[in-house]
Amino acid sequence: MLVYPSGIDLSSSTLRYLSRLLAVRRLERGTRWRRLPADRQVLLVLAHLRCGHTYAQLAAGFGVGIATVYRYVAEAVEVLAATAPDLTMAARTAARKAFVILDGTLLPIDRIAADRPYYSGKHKKHGMNVQVIADPFGRLLWASPALPGAVHDVRAARKHGIIDALARADVPCRADKAYRGAGGTVRVPHWGRWETLSTGQKAANRSHAKIRALVEQAVATLKSWRLLRKLRCATTRITGLIQAVLCLHLASSD
Question: For labelling, which of 100, 111, 161, 248 has a CA lying 20 to 30 Å from the CA of 11?
Fold first, then answer.
């Protein structure tokens, strides 16, 4: 396999942040020797998460075995997932905002047609349903654990407890028609055919759409980590990857 130098569109603060976490983990485990130092392990992990490089590509580029790459990535994801904010912390952050925006997105996965629980009829593909909360400027605040793609958005929001958490924090929430009937503080557009809506309802829906469109920036932020654009791992590992990406994004934003 040919090897060439490449770049990762992340700041050095992201590398330093994860390096500190892994250095602490190595001290806790009493690790005396590794094939790669902590900063090189971090570079390997970031290349996997941000650029979507495969284990074979990383093994060739860093001069280690594929099994070593797997262990390094799994260790880093575990450390980051344990540090990622939960819904309670996200609701506490959201309480300081004027309102938040809620939306669901589908992370495509590599599955066959027989895997019906993972098939999204809305997107016409297999994937995992992830709920995203954004602030009024479209910045990513939180991403939920992954559910099979066949799960409807409002059902996913209820299962994760998002609606109840926002209601307890008394945070106004804007969402699309997929969350109709959610209750709590969630507000959706007026329901009905366009020609049957009143002038005031049409104006309210246009205003609502302009606000809600900002959540697409948060979804794009999540999918800027190219590994999440086409997941080829076991579905049980996807939640950990999402939490790892969320943790790195929030750390770099801070």
Answer: 100
